[in-house]
Amino acid sequence: MNTQTSLLGKVALVTGGGRGIGKAITRRLAEAGANVVIASRKMENLEATAKEFSMLPGKIIPIACHVGRKEQLEHLVAETLTRLGPIDILVNNSATNIGQGPSLEADDEMLDKMVEINIKSAFRLVRLIVPKMIERQKGGAIINIASIAGLRPQPGGLLYSFTKAGLLMMTRSWAQEFGQFNIRVNAIAPGLIQTDFSEFLWKTEATRGQFEETTPLRRIGQPEEIAGLALYLASAEASFVTGQVMVADGGFTAT
Fold this sequence. Notes:
Oligomer: single chain
Largest sheet: 7 strands, parallel
């Protein structure tokens, strides 16, 4: 194991860790030796992931949690502290993308849910975890999974785009504020990745073909290609990297 990317003795919390990008990140962190708590609403996905990766060096613990509920986030952090100890790495990966379509058709309920999951969950977890990072004086790493939709509007995706843009600005603001405590805060902005979450964008040959045609690498991405960036940002390899947005989109935003 590369000593610079080793996470032996580290504790990580990954929201949405049961499938897709979160699952791939969980694997890379546990391969590097971190003990990882994975959280989402569906315990069956979490348990399946923990079982699949049970032979990796790092321990994986599933905890059911609705990230849009403040009391459940408080329970999640308390359980993590009890079972694994202080948190060194936070990956805010959980997201939702309802309200696709004309912006004038989006209603207050859609708006509230998008903000609750995509913005408030990260905000609340940072408030719960960072004070203890500061007290320990050992630094830490926060990785926010955003989207290229936060850099340029996703057609028919006003709510998703503005919440992901908000997460990027939160990333930069936290990096400014927490840098003095050696707490690094970065974001990853994926393009189209082949997951259940984004299935509506790639499941038909026509829609997938549109993305492949306009992407310089001529394909969509895989969750593992985002996980490698997350491992880098969580490790000592990125010890001088904070406040950054790392785009992984096959060159889509370069066109």
